[in-house]
Amino acid sequence: MFTIQDVSRRSGLSEPTVRYYEQVGLIGPIRRDESSGHRRYDEADLHTLESLACLRATGVGIEDMRVYEANRARGRAAAAEQRDLLLRHAERIEAEIAAQHVRLEYLRVKAALWEARDRRDAAAEAAAVERTMEVITRLEVVR
Hints:
Helix content is 75%, strand content 3%. It is mostly helical.
């Protein structure tokens, strides 16, 4: 049996988050020590919390965590649903990465513009302005 401090440390989730996950039904019900009333977690609870911590780290929300846990309990019968849920989140992360690449490119071309201005290089400045305008059109798409 594990204390809340143990599962917090092992899962990487804060104690308030562990309590919240119990409150919203992602884990539990959690057994209580008869004499102290403190929560006592077993290996299965710890495994669930570690899984939820991984999902949380990838930006999966509470509702999809619920679906994931329900599917996990169903096992192979829910394999396709589980795959689709995870791939949907992978696509979301890919879109976020693409958006971050555009933002990064914008910052770099703007820095190049100011570098050209600092050097008083009119040709480089004109090229940087043109490149900046190209990136801005893609930047607006990712907003």
